Amino acid sequence: MDKLKSYLKKNKKRQLDELIDLLKIPSVSADPKFKKDVAKTAKSIAQHLKKAGADMVAVCETKGHPIVYGEKIIDKKLPTVLVYGHYDVQPADPVELWDSPPFEPVIKKTKIHPQGAIFARGSCDDKGQAFMHIKAFEAMVENDALPCNVKFMIEGEEEVGSVNLGEFCKKNAKQLACDVILISDTSIISNKQPSITVGLRGLSYVEVEVTGPNKDLHSGVYGGAVANPINILSKMIASMHDKNNKITIPDFYKDVARLSKKEREAMNKAPFSITQYKKSLEVKDVHGEKGYTTLERTSIRPTLDVNGIWGGYIGEGAKTVLPSKAYAKISMRLVPNQDPHKITKLFEKYFKSIAPKSVKVKVTPHHGGDAAVTPTDTPEYMAAHKAMKKAFGKNPIPVRGGGSIPIVALFEKVLGVKTVLMGFGLDSDDIHSPNEHYGLFNYYKGIETIPYFYQFYVQEKAK
Ligand code: BES
Ligand code: MN
Ligand code: MN
């Protein structure tokens, strides 16, 4: 391990430069305009895997963007770790709100990242975090320190719902056989307080369309006598939360897994400052479901949020128009035991039931996914715990995350394998937002922690 440490020290600059180059390719999976760049990124990841020491590497085409697969099998009798990550990124819009171009990485110091952070789309979510695994793998191979088999599956469609990954896993279940799935696509509490994510929320995502009259109308000639779909949609959306901020869809909470008082007390002991939280977001108060803390609202409770709403005239100046249509994109974050398909149906039924006769409504489901909880009494959790403790010098705390990685539940269903969510980002890294960044401390700490994980995992498995 000393050899490995000095190798990492010597190769620091190159390992950073390589990530910077990778971040220059705009691998936006949602926008067909970037299809070539997504493919180029896949190729680059494959080359990096090969160079790092994978025996077999393949860029696997799907109906959408390719999945990069790589493996190094050193001994069939040893355990196998499957690393999952994604090389696709969220769209950079609104680009004008970035302080530097999203695909021209720059390193800047911030208060939270005094050693500097790389500012670029995908730096944290998830190119930077996925790349740590390739660099740690390279270091282990170079220094004869790889203690088990490893498989990589780095996909290009996570940010659009991993629509082709399920089929890929089913088709290639044999090839993907492994003992544990290791993912770095989540966050830690802070650089001084490591944590391991032990839960993720599920997701149901729908788009709604409300139609009033069959064409846009003069808002003076018709206004007041015909339903304005934007007015109606706003009212419908507003009615989906009651005065306690509970979601009003009947049976929405029916299957929600409840936590014991003890479990809730334990999770609220995690270090968290509500004052700092409000300050960082420049809000005078937080907002959410009555009876739950902010930590609970963002982890063990489901939500309903409008992600976008549009319709009518939004150009310069004023245009008097009574629009024909209004739209919204609505996401519901789900918690264990809530079935995304069932929730989508409940939403649709309720949404239609609250629409007045004066409008027509259409509900189109998008991607979704199951929530996940990962156990803490497994060799892999123990290994992650020990690895983080060794790298950070402090015991990591188990925490439930608010985001979603739908494939975690899918891996369990299709491959029958549990996941360890050992992420290194910070919640303040602005993933999906303008000025996304990833701390250099976090990048290097990740590369340092990963080989410890492998080492401890093999030890724990042999127990
Ligand atoms: N890496 C995130 C998920 C995440 C972020 C989990 C921070 C925990 C902490 C992932 O790339 C993501 O953005 N997932 C989407 C869902 C997906 C179906 C588009 C999400 O959570 O919105
Ligand atoms: Mn991600
Ligand atoms: Mn993401």
Give short descriptive properties of this protein.
single chain, 463 residues, alpha/beta, Aminopeptidase, Alpha-Beta Plaits, 6-stranded mixed β-sheet, 4-stranded antiparallel β-sheet, 18 strands, binds ligand BES, binds manganese (II) ion
List the helices and strands and how they pair.
Blueprint: H1 2-10, H2 12-23, H3 35-52, E1 56-60, E2 67-72, E3 80-86, E4 106-108, E5 117-119, H4 127-142, E6 149-155, H5 165-171, E7 180-183, E8 187-188, E9 195-200, E10 202-211, H6 229-238, H7 261-267, H8 274-281, H9 294-297, E11 303-311, E12 325-334, H10 340-353, E13 360-369, E14 372-373, H11 379-392, E15 397-400, H12 407-414, E16 419-421, E17 425-426, E18 437-439, H13 440-462
Parallel strand pairs: 3-6, 3-7, 7-16, 8-17, 9-15
Antiparallel strand pairs: 1-2, 2-6, 4-5, 5-18, 9-14, 10-12, 10-13, 11-12
Bound molecules: ligand BES and manganese (II) ion (2 copies).
Residues 86, 125-126, 158, 185 line the site of one manganese (II) ion (MN).
